[in-house]
């Protein structure tokens, strides 16, 4: 036992020494191998770092040159604006317009047409014009701004008053309330006075012209170009793949801390991740010389480093290949270590983030990992030996699983999404991969399943779908989903002659609610309105929110009978209007919410989404014009009426310049039948339509502000006639009454304009009577009183027209310098039949006497009406009984006949 023991000790010691030597040799070999690999890696890293820095430097050089080139292109675009300003300066010296004091020279209209043609010929021009030293219009390309219209309060002209030495000014992005969009103003002070006496030439540019300029610059993948004004607001940005990765015009760009628009002068460079599309880029800033704009060029770092990454992977692959060859030399030393490492890696992979389950060929679970237990809630001990079917949610039928296993048998694997059930009973979605493991004979020995919980991914997808198709405030389908549903109706399985209806709902004066209660309360009200509307609709109806305070309801399956479909739509519309009459909670007064509603009926086969929506909108507008808090059905004649209105509006723009307006005169007489004067009434003789009713064209002129120029023409015509009559003894005592529009009266220079007309024409002010309505005094009553007093100081008199038809108030009758009340013809017409009208007329006559005002009755058509008015104290009349409105020649003939008939 002892000998044996003594013999074994040297052997064990020898083995131990050999093991130690072998281990030392193995360590030295591994150390040498690692050192060589590290040296190669360091050399490779140094080379790649140099390449990286060189690539970045080249990128900075390219992007800086790109920004400077873009700035030069923008400057070239501004040179076109300079040329247009030069042409306006030349136009100021033009002799096309000969100014005379007695007529409006038609050459002035030629100048307007010339500017309009020049505007329409150049896409970059939106509007252009000449202005005097105070910023008043001399001539423009826009019919919205008549000659003399005061724009001096705008910053375009205010800056020239603040800086007298300033000769030229280019604005940043400027919000134009007339264009309802961003514009760029380019204004130049004119040297000397031209024929037109203009001091400024002004051009309004559309920001889109710079987008077109930048679009001519070729761009490679990953590059971007943008133009910003001095306040970092976007003018143009490209490329734009979607609406989510592009800056809209006027949107402010968030520069990084320490970098701003002022750095464009020094050519700042910055590397950052774009807040617009999330792409990291190299950016260079370059100023547009002499203009408050800067160009920003960018190049995506990922694209810039694309070649560098390719070289990196090639070199790394080469380095790995060399390392693997070296590893092969050491393989016989590292076999056991490699096996252990492989075992460790396999164990790490098995215990990764994905759930893993291994079954035998019969489908019995052999092993699971920790991720399996974390996702499903089942510990491994509870599932070993059982079938994976214990996870089934019941949401897939047998056919689904049969196809799954057929796929595994045919291809060896299956991948897809399934719904499984956790141990807690919760159903969840997962991404599952099943792989079959086969032996050397191709027989299946095991199945390996790996899966991941995709609940968060599904939730994100659902949230994106909700944002794309639903209104975030109310949860209702949005405009896009409504249009999709309208388009889908044409392909429904129901017969094509089935009817549907679209109802557009617009809340009346909802902006006042926001102003009164705040936007938060306004949002809560919209949610409450959504609830009320839903409660009145059927299950098959679709309620949508189109935006703001506008809702839509799609009524489907209304049957083939149009009358029945209209009846159902009308009933539902009535219920909706009733439900919307809500008392607003928290309001200081009992404020009620109402709505206007437009309805259009259509057949399934005729479901053209945009056309149907347009028809419902026309019906909605008709409901609003009808007084709101009501509904209207779409009338096909509405389209023709709208077309007629647009044509009439276009003709109205040129009616004054073409001399199509004529003044008509209707006599005003006293109780003895003596003609005291006349009311000047405007008539439009259209070359194709004939006489156009004032009730048709006057509202149009008020909407587009042409009424101001028309009013001044009528006033000037009337004053010239008064001056002519004043030179003749038989007509010098005649007066002329002229209607004055509210818009004209509230112009800042209204008093000065009327004073100038009186001075230039030589008309006696005391013979001019301005007829005003109660609308003058509903707002800005103090301003109206001051202007009337100023005109009264000149000798002009005032008559209150249509008294009693509006919001009559005795308070302003006592405060305002009125001379005459005019009884509206609607009361005079019924004075003999309607006791209420008779009472109103009698009260008005009595009121006028108590206020020491003259009273005149219009619309007197019969002797009985005149006699009744005489008996109640009215001594002045106007109406068909005494003469119809007629041109000047006819009126003067009637005047001579009346004078000859007198004793």
TrEMBL record:
Domain PAS stretches: 356-387
CDD domains: EAL, GGDEF, PAS, PDC1_DGC_like, PDC2_DGC_like
Pfam families in alphabetical order: EAL, GGDEF, PAS_9
Keywords: Membrane, Transmembrane, Transmembrane helix
Location of the GGDEF domain: 498-636
Record has Phosphoprotein as a keyword: no
UniProt keyword Cell inner membrane, yes or no: no
Record-annotated membrane-spanning stretches: 30-49, 312-334
InterPro entries: Biofilm_reg_signaling (IPR052155), EAL_dom (IPR001633), EAL_sf (IPR035919), GGDEF_dom (IPR000160), Nucleotide_cyclase (IPR029787), PAC (IPR001610), PAS (IPR000014), PAS-assoc_C (IPR000700)
PAC domain ranges (all copies): 414-466
Origin superkingdom: Bacteria
EAL domain mapped to chain residues: 645-899
PANTHER family per the UniProt record, alphabetical: BIOFILM ARCHITECTURE MAINTENANCE PROTEIN MBAA, DIGUANYLATE CYCLASE DGCP
Name of protein: EAL domain-containing protein
Species the sequence originates in: Halomonas mongoliensis
